[in-house]
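Case study.
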Amino acid sequence: MLGRMLLWASERKRVERFLTQGRLTSPVVERFVAGARLDDAIEAIRRLNEDGIGGILDLLGEGVTDPAGAAQAFDEYLESIKRIDETGIDTTVAIKLTQLGLAFDKGQCIDYVRRLGAEAQAIGTYVEIDMEQSAYVDDTLDVYRLLKADFDDLRLAMQAYLRRTPVDLEAMSDLRPKVRLVKGAYAEPEEIALQKRKEIDNQFRFITEWLFDRGDDPGIATHDSRLILYARAAALERNLDRTSFEIQMLYGVRHDLQRELAREGHRVRCYVPFGSAWYPYLMRRLAERPANLRFFLRAVVGR
Ligand code: FDA
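After joint prediction, the assembly is written out as follows.
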């Protein structure tokens, strides 16, 4: 219940203005966000690399409503890729298509992603497309299908909670899609998304198997140890070793487990967000674990 309220609040601009006033306000924000500046994220990833963990660099921001906002996000992504090259850190680049104008100019958005894909490829890394609210799934799948032809290593997030996901994957099987499998982080109605944890976990397991059989380099993005063990067993069953899939987690969540898995020889990447537009991202993290809310509210009230 509280989780759903937080997801509702994550999409409300007025609540955002009240709570944030655009600043990094509390230790809770700092826990989940590397910092306001690109260099903060670069430094966080450098430290992760020392522990054998790769990065997934994420410029915060989504739901951009005008061309200038999308152009600015594109420029910031370009700058990020340039800095990755200069610093030599091991990281991929996560993008949100609504940040690049998907909601109002799909053609321009595709052009931006194509250019970012080329820049990333030129420095030896690749782009990962996040999956957002269900209203954007069709367009996001279109963009992926179109650009996968140019960039074979493009990765796409797919959400286990969506009832449609197994069908979408089946329709993409000719591509051998390179997927980041997540449970799903948005408030979606029951007709669209599974609501019960057990059902979501079962669908997650089913898709994990599918990705080993029909996908390319499965990305298992969860902090749920049981689902990570499940992926490990699925690999073993196919006589594949632990490097046959990638484990992905979020900055600030179960860092010890990330390190332990990397030490055991797993390929681990950590999603590292930076920037000032942290509000919806943080609200989704709090919805996953309302216990963190207490610290956040204390910081807001006490500021
Ligand atoms: P679950 O929430 O069931 O947690 C399992 C265990 O992990 C908990 O019991 C707890 O121990 C720990 N844990 C989880 N969250 C925590 C937190 N916030 N604080 C502290 N402990 C926590 N979603 C989406 O819709 N589109 C996307 O593109 C992405 N991208 C993405 C990338 C990566 C790398 C990750 C890891 C996740 C995403 N997500 C996402 C988010 C995803 O959909 C999901 O909401 C979260 O990962 C939480 O689900 P878990 O699978 O971790 O399980």
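Observations recorded in class. Residues 1-33+279-297 form one domain. Residues 67-87 form the longest helix (21 residues). We will return to this complex in the next lecture.
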